[in-house]
Amino acid sequence: MTKVHQDIEAALSCVKNGHTLMVGGFGLIGAPLTLIDGLAKKDVAGLTVISNNLGEKGKGLGVLLSQKKIKKAIGSYFTSNREIGEFYQRGEIELELLPQGTLAESIRAGGAGIGGYYTKTGVGTDLAKGKEEREINGATYIFEPAIRANVALIRAWKADTLGNLVYYKTARNFNPGMATAADVVIAEVDEIVQPGELPPEEIVTPHLFVDGIIKAKKILTKEGVKVYE
Asked: Which pTM does this prediction carry?
């Protein structure tokens, strides 16, 4: 059985209006640029996007922002795309800001089947407003719920046709966690090999988490985003 999609439309057929999406990446590093490009061409709207940031102006998730396909964004570092402030001031997007570690842990909790957890991060700040507080061992903690999504779009280096994934260096940022915390997971990869060709000890995301694979057509280089076949 193969999970490999030959075209982007088939790979993204699981994404519907109003869905919550997790999108991997740290800036544009490790972002599934081919899948994002496919979403830019897909007739879909009202999306909630969970990602560290919303790309840059005209790049990555910044394209979907410009198209007004994103209703709400949950992330940590929105200032990498200056257009977000303009959209927010006009009331065209809802933002939920989470500390970066909190974002990562909330995704991990969602993948582990944990309902939420208590953390000191954010206590006494505006980020704690409206959240449950609890004293543990003399310290104040706030409750953060786990995060899950309908679909996760992630970026890996290699995959076999079963869906086992290997990541390349810093592209292993939010991608492995997001692969565990969505109902459907689509992975964009540089290389697809046959089962047995990936050393088992190098596999980070087991195939049971992955529903679809597509070959990357866009790659981030020092010169910028390039398209390749």
From this structure: 0.93
**Looking at residues 179-201, what average pLDDT do you find?**
97
Side chain identity, residue 76? S
**CA-derived radius of gyration, the chain:** 18
Domains in the chain, start-ordered, CATH in brackets?
A: 8-227 (3.40.1080.10)
146 close to 116: Cβ distance less than 8 angstroms: yes
How far apart are alpha carbons 50 and 147 in whole angstroms?
A: 9
DSSP 3-state of 172:
coil
CB of 167 closer than 8 Å to CB of 200: no
What is the arithmetic mean of pLDDT over 131-148?
A: 97
Q: How far apart are CA 21 and CA 34, in angstroms?
A: 15
Task: Give the model's pLDDT for residue 224.
Answer: 61
Q: Which of 25, 123, 154 is nearest to 77 (CA)?
A: 25
Closest residue by Cα to residue 205 from 1, 54, 3: 3
Average pLDDT over residues 187-194: 96
Rounded average pLDDT over 155-174: 96
